[in-house]
UniProtKB/TrEMBL annotation:
All residue ranges annotated as the Helicase C-terminal domain in the record: 274-470
Protein name: Uncharacterized protein
Cellular localisation: Nucleus
Keywords: ATP-binding, Helicase, Hydrolase, Nucleotide-binding, Nucleus
Organism: Monosiga brevicollis (Choanoflagellate)
């Protein structure tokens, strides 16, 4: 266990928190006793903030430190100091970033500052012997696996974002500097680092934002901006309610009118207002590549630049594209973007050509672009703030569903507003087209950053590389992973919860508890048999004849009871079922349109039952799936055909309330045997069991007791506490165990069965091959190599085949398209790929790993086969773009990943001594590495 201390440094807005984790028994000198040196490694022309001074003190003591602060707060100052100190002391320093584009940008900045700087990414290597090396985390991981000599010379490792690193004990220890955006609380990160290095590790944390933000709502179709969070962080509820009122009263009508007004759009009006108020430069975040382009075109009639700025934009653009061939200069993205740029309008998303993206970044950084329409990736990587940030929507599609932004996502993007030293405040504008509750808005606008949880997961490449490294094994790595650390941190809290819940359980004393428990069990059995009977009753062939308009039914969706409602109509609809989170075959379901009394909840489109007196109710016609009908009564009411008016819906529901009053013992239900004619032995048996249990229940001594409800409520509380204690004990047992250890054991069994390792976990030849492959499926690619799949293929077909390993999961719609010539040529090979994949899946399933054989075998998309084949044969980029509907930037990104995989396949072929295959893959690298696809970065 680690010891530690916590201190609040300074006072006021700029205050920071300092924490330190110490190895047990470490002779620690308090940080406050270490003044800043008189001769600092780097001097700054401004006064350092408290968090910067504290972090630099840690660096001067060669002790690891994590700096957590808001975007643009000045974390880079600390990283630069670590670099300057290492260079002064004659040590090497590594600066890592999570993505290549950011590595390129940082290389340019640091090279201008320090000179002796090198770059190592999957695409580029510049000056690898430099004292300061900028690299991606993937390159760092590879170096650590191989015990690179560079790591023995490193004094400082600067991680731009928090990352769990695996280090060999044979590598001399070095200090870590990690920078992170502000999390919800001072993050408990130091322990994994200091336990590994045997020295202190510090956290320096601040909530201080140098440039305060003002948050506005812009209701689409409404009446302008509403300040809802001021620069002090106060939420203005009156202004928020005015915005919601504007949205509800005038928004829909105004929005409908705007559709018929040519040349006008909410976005164009928004941008014009921003320019008029002098809020530029502005970043407009949208969650769709297509929308970014659409919004930019809507604003293309505007012009925000001077003639001098136009000259600068044209000069920078033409200098940038001079490296392209004449043919590539005619690509639509290249030829059509300049008119927009000249007007001060830019677009930035992953589908753009990398060269165009970098031109736009440079122009925006120079202040020549006044408005930039970007996807959220712009906020995740590049450090380019603006005065104003606009959100086009408060919802995003995350690959599974359209959902509200989390407060962490909002913080990350809105944090780009406000340039330190240039703006007295940053402006954030959230465009909204639907109402939300104030509590929800507060959570999104003022909530905390998302908690940082380890996303660490095991891969076969990782396991194999660790098995071949001396003195380290995968179990050792799991024990020291950040995920294991986070899990272990929960132990004291779990133990305290168990003790508290057990105390609460033991304090509950119930008179004649045995009889109460007996009564409780009878009711539980009744509920269980009732649920089985309900399932029979709601079978479509049984219930459909009784779903006439006006039929009164009870709706219960899990724990949510909506009470009685009135059937309006029903229809059969095809719905895609889901398996493992993926859409599968369609199945038909009955959808019942029902008039219900539900809570008014603008922040949630899904109806919610009225559960508290404060809930505002409305009568709403709501579609529900058949299985949520919990009871069906004999009562039918008259129902008007038109329920569009609120008065008619209220009148219908008043009739229902009157019917309920007429039956004080409860509405009469359809009898499953007599009325619904369910005549199976199973149904009759269920009805008989229910009748027997009801007789026992009514005859029980507790049934007529005045204390029954109170005693039952007390017993239910005790049962829930007992169940909670049992669940917490399971969590505690899990926390004490090593995370993912069972998965690791199963993965090792797979490796033995496939002969990648021996029974003693010694790497075999197959394993040495798989150690080289990390970009694609290492097991499957190794099997294909050993089965000779690539031996008979041409270079172009081999490269094309590898393309199926570098895209995401296959889209089932692709299978409906006519096969391309290249796909037909590779039909037999693709069948062999699937056969090998099924074999790996069968072995995985046999060893208790959670693998779906069909999904695994069909996960390899073929849409780039022809594109890659033609590119490898020398076709022009403009020609291959015509054969796919992918964005040009997406094609290039895939091609660059393909080059990484080809290089790994060269190393894999070398590992088995197959020179012919090695040469074939090397020829593939030469064939695809050309023209605009591999145009050099403008930052280099």
């Amino acid at each position: 266990m680690a010891e530690g201390s916590r201190n609040i440094i300074a006072t006021g807005a700029k205050a920071c928190t300092h924490e330190v984790a110490l190895p047990q028994g470490y002779n620690y000198i308090p940080l406050k006793d270490t003044p800043l040196p008189k001769q600092m490694a780097k001097e700054y022309p401004f006064t350092l903030d408290p968090f910067q001074r504290e972090a630099i003190r840690c660096i001067e003591r060669s002790e690891s430190v994590l700096v957590s602060a808001h975007t643009s707060a000045g974390k880079t100052v600390v990283a630069e100091y670590a670099i300057a100190l290492s260079l002064r002391e004659g040590q090497r320093v590594i600066y890592t970033s999570p993505i290549k584009a950011l590595s390129n940008q940082k290389y340019r900045e640091l090279a201008e500052e320090f000179g002796d700087v090198g770059l190592m990414t999957g695409d580029t290597t510049i000056n690898p012997t430099a004292s300061c090396l900028v690299m991606t985390t993937e390159i760092l991981r590879s170096m650590l696996y191989r015990g690179s000599e560079i790591m023995r010379e490193v004094g400082w490792l600067s991680l731009m974002r928090f990352t769990t690193c695996v280090t060999r004990s044979a590598v001399p220890s070095f200090s870590y500097l990690t920078t992170s955006t502000t999390s919800s609380s001072p993050p408990p990160f130091p322990t994994p680092f200091n336990l590994r290095s045997g020295s202190p590790c510090h956290v320096v944390y601040t909530n201080y934002r140098p440039t305060p933000l003002q948050h506005y709502l812009y209701p689409q179709g409404g009446d302008g901006l509403h300040l809802v969070v001021d620069e002090t962080g106060a939420f203005r509820e009156d202004s928020f309610m005015k915005a919601m009122m504007s949205l509800s009263e005038g928004g829909a009508a105004n929005k409908q009118r705007s559709k018929h007004q040519k040349g006008k759009s909410p976005m164009r009006s928004m941008v014009r207002m921003i320019m008029k108020r002098g809020y530029q430069p502005c970043i407009v975040f949208s969650f769709s590549k297509r929308d970014c382009e659409t919004y930019a075109m809507q604003c293309s009639l505007e012009d925000f630049t001077t003639s001098e700025e136009k000259q600068q934009i044209e000069m920078i653009f033409k200098n940038a594209i001079d490296i392209l061939s004449e043919d590539d200069k005619q690509l639509p993205q290249v030829s059509q973007v300049l008119p927009l740029l000249l007007k001060g309008i830019g677009i930035h998303h992953g589908g753009l050509l990398p060269l165009i993206k970098e031109v736009i970044e440079i122009l925006f950084g120079e202040g020549l672009l006044k408005v930039l329409f970007a996807t959220e990736t712009f906020a995740m990587g590049l450090n380019m703030p603006a005065r104003t940030v606009v959100f086009t929507n408060a919802r995003k599609y995350d690959g599974t569903e359209h959902r509200w932004l989390t407060s962490g996502e909002y913080i990350q993007m809105s944090g780009r507003a406000g340039r330190r030293g240039l703006d007295d405040r940053g402006i954030v504008i959230l465009m909204m087209d639907e109402k939300v509750e104030p509590t929800f808005a507060k959570q999104m606008l003022q909530g905390q950053a998302d908690q940082l949880n380890s996303a660490f997961h095991l891969t076969y490449n990782m396991v194999l590389n660790l098995l071949r490294v001396e003195e380290v094994n995968p179990e050792y790595m799991l024990q020291r992973s950040f995920r294991q650390f986070q899990n272990s941190q929960a132990i004291p809290g779990l133990e305290a919860k168990i003790a508290e819940r057990q105390r609460q359980h033991d304090e509950i004393v119930i008179e004649d508890e045995a009889k109460v428990e007996e009564y409780y069990n009878i009711r539980k059995q009744l509920e269980s048999f009732g649920e089985e009977l309900r399932t029979l009753i709601t079978e479509p062939q049984t219930i459909v004849p009784f779903l006439q308009p006006g039929r009164v039914v009870e709706v219960r969706d899990g724990e949510q009871n909506f009470g009685w409602g009135i059937v309006v109509d029903f229809k059969e609809r095809a719905v895609k079922s889901k398996r493992n989170g993926k859409n599968q075959a369609e199945e038909k379901q009955i959808v019942v349109t029902t008039l219900l009394h539900v809570a008014s909840d603008a922040g949630n489109k899904k109806p919610r039952p009225i559960s508290t007196p404060t809930d505002k109710g409305e009568y709403k016609v709501t579609p529900v799936l058949l299985p949520v009908l919990s009871q069906i009564s004999k009562v039918r009411l008259f129902l008007p055909k038109d329920l569009s008016g609120a008065d008619k819906r209220r009148a219908a529901f008043n009739a229902l309330q009157e019917a309920i009053r007429r039956f004080p013992e409860g509405l009469p239900l359809l009898d499953p045997i007599e009325d619904m004619k369910i005549s199976t032995d199973y149904a009759r048996g269920l009805v008989g069991k229910i009748q027997t249990l009801e007789t026992r229940l009514f005859a029980h001594a507790l049934h007529e007791s005045e204390k029954r409800d109170d005693m039952m409520a007390l017993f239910v509380t005790k049962v829930r506490l007992r169940e909670l204690v049992s669940s917490l004990k399971k969590d505690l047992k899990q926390s004490h165990s090593i995370q993912q250890l069972d998965e690791l054991k199963n993965m090792k069994r797979v490796l033995r069965r496939l002969q990648f390792t021996t029974n003693d976990d010694v790497i075999e030849l197959k394993g040495r091959v798989a150690c080289e492959v990390s970009t694609g499926d290492e097991l499957l690619l190794t099997e294909l190599m050993f089965n000779g799949i690539f031996n008979e293929l041409s270079m172009a077909h081999s490269v094309a085949l590898l393309s199926i390993f570098i895209l995401g999961t296959a889209n089932s719609k692709e299978k409906e398209k006519e096969k391309s010539p290249v796909e037909k040529d590779l039909t037999n090979t693709l069948n062999q790929v699937q056969e090998n994949a099924r074999r790996i899946a069968r072995v995985s399933i046999d060893t208790k790993l959670d693998v779906d054989m069909q999904s695994y075998a069909e996960q390899f998309p073929v849409e780039m086969l022809e594109v890659v084949h033609d590119w490898a044969q020398g076709r022009k980029f403009s020609e291959i773009c015509e054969k796919t509907d992918m964005f040009e930037g997406s094609i290039i990104r895939a091609m660059r990943r393909l080059e990484e995989l080809l290089k790994q396949m060269i190393a894999a072929a070398k590992a088995i001594g197959n020179t012919e295959l090695e040469n074939k893959f090397a020829e593939g690298v030469t064939a695809i590495r050309r023209d605009i696809v591999f145009a050099p970065s403008l930052y280099l």
